[in-house]
Aminotransferase class V domain-containing protein (Monosporascus ibericus), 291 residues
Amino acid sequence: MVTIEPASSEDPLISAEDIQSVIAKHASDTALLLLPGIQYYTGQLFDIPTITAFARGRGIFVIWDLAHAVGNVPLSLHDWDVDAAAWCTYKYLNSGPGCIGGMFINSRNSLVTTLISDEEPEPGYGKRLSGWWGNDKGTRFQMETKFHPVQGAAGFQLSNPSILDITSLGASLEVFELSGGMSALREKSKKLTAFLESCLSKMPEAARSLFRSITPKDPEQRGAQLSLLLADGLLQRVMEELTERGVIVDERKPNVIRVAPAPLYNTFEDCVAFVEAFEPALLAASRAQSS
């Protein structure tokens, strides 16, 4: 396995050119490329269509992990010629912890013969984590020893899903539709995150010197999230101070907090409120560290 890492610890971002360079170097002995659409730690949005085309042009099967991208940025997986993708639905899709996951399989990778009465399964069908719920409905209850999948992503289902999971996800997707869809939400998201970024930049120097954003400044290279890298040793106290002020954000050790205003329910006032809580939290943590 080949990992792709930032060129410098000071700059955790990875450019599309850096990724392409690694792909080109190892293309002759690489079968599969797996990358996140949005990197969980930095919030960097990768150029999915460009990287996909580059890798596929060298015979590499491309899968994207879209856990932090789905419901956050518009995705056109078929148009981008992605081979496959997977994601959860409890983050930006708001369906709740432990909820049902999602999967995309390009139609060229899911062709299934219509002759489901074959004595033997077609070669290749068994090369997957297969379950009876992914079997063709016409023979699902015949309990045969062969596996004949449903065409498409449905053929990768394992068992019947929880009705509560489906209901919560369905309700969330209805809200997305009523809100104008991903394009409209993305435009608001870019404005919210840019506003938050601006508010952070206007903090007094005493507080601003205690952190920096490691998320790309270009709105087209990020989603809703800003990852704020704190000075060493401040994370735990800052999180405690924020909680006392009624602010809940995410932490990634050793020194990062992730702040992601969600366009469905966060406001510009929320961004101001966060900064007004973040400043004293930083200063309190710094004083505690110095004492």
Summary: Helices lie at 16-26, 48-56, 163-178, 181-201, 205-208, 235-244, 268-290. The beta strands are 32-36, 61-65, 84-87, 102-105, 211-213, 226-230, 250-252, 256-259.
